[in-house]
Amino acid sequence: MDEKRVPAVGRLLYVNSHTNTILKQADALNRTLLISNPNNISRAVHTLDEVTIVVVPSDLIQTKFDFAVGSKTVDDAQQIDMMLVYNGVQIAPQKYSFVGFDQPNAANGGNYLYREISYDDVFLLPTKSAGIAFHVSDKAKPATTDGTGTAQGEA
Fold it and tell me: I need a surface site. Which of 6, 50, 53, 141 has the fewest CB within 10 A?
């Protein structure tokens, strides 16, 4: 993103918990190396200082979902390990199909009740697509059992 002149301020890095652990270990290792040898300063992990890291559960950061009834994961979806976004490359419109007040009554404790139905979405602006990057991998397959509770392939 630096080479594409995307500003460093305002970048958000969305990661799953496994990737967050790896990033923390790399950051700790880098700081240990800096302290142990002050004559040889290495800034290999310097870009972690420039972004805000947001940890997202692995089942919520995938490439595909089934929204037929609620939200379900899909078997052939890939895992998004990291998503780096410059805040401002997207727009998030809202459409309201209903907004209303209900009169005070016993069911709402004698207060007015505000109700709304809205639809939300997010769109990427094509002219600012340099401000988003993904790292995607195959999902880890859950261990299958042979009926005895032992995972296949274990002794």
Answer: 141
